[in-house]
Amino acid sequence: MNLVVALMGGSKMAYRPAQFRRGALLVSLLVLLSSCASTFPRALMEQVDPTVSFAQLLRTPDAYQGRLVLVGGELLRTIRGYGAMELEILQRPLSATALPRFFQPSQGRFLVRVPAHLQRPLPEVGGLLTVIGEVWGAKERGGEVLPYLEARDLKAWPSWAALPPPQFSGVGD
Predict the structure, then answer these.
(1) Verdict on whether the full-model pTM lies above 0.70
(2) In CATH, what number does 42-162 get?
(3) Which residues, listed in sequence order, are joined to residue 85 by a DSSP beta bridge?
């Protein structure tokens, strides 16, 4: 208790666990949002077509050829080739900060060609990625026709990003 009083500037205010948890949660969210707000350059984000949903892209990828889309998900496979690599990603819905929501259901898979100038360390299989990509059409993989994009930029998220959000029990409220 003395530590809490000292942290509060020596005030004799009563320590209230519920208020402390809310304050800590608010500070954590602000730090997370500020760190994710600049995930991609603004000029590139302005070119993304927000009207194209992943469901539409999955149904008719050729109809969106040449458009930029923002998609993300869980890395399933990396295939390295000469001058480029190809990623197979299991789509996940994106949060407001473009973080794939690992615990949300997927609508399918997609492929991303990553040119040499964009290649950077990627997460292990199962890690999360967000991609701004130009739709190139479709490509067959394992008997299935998948949307095929060329990456204009990508973000590999840290492994802790896939953790479920904290649950508070409400004890002391």
Answers:
(1) yes
(2) 2.40.50.140
(3) 80, 114
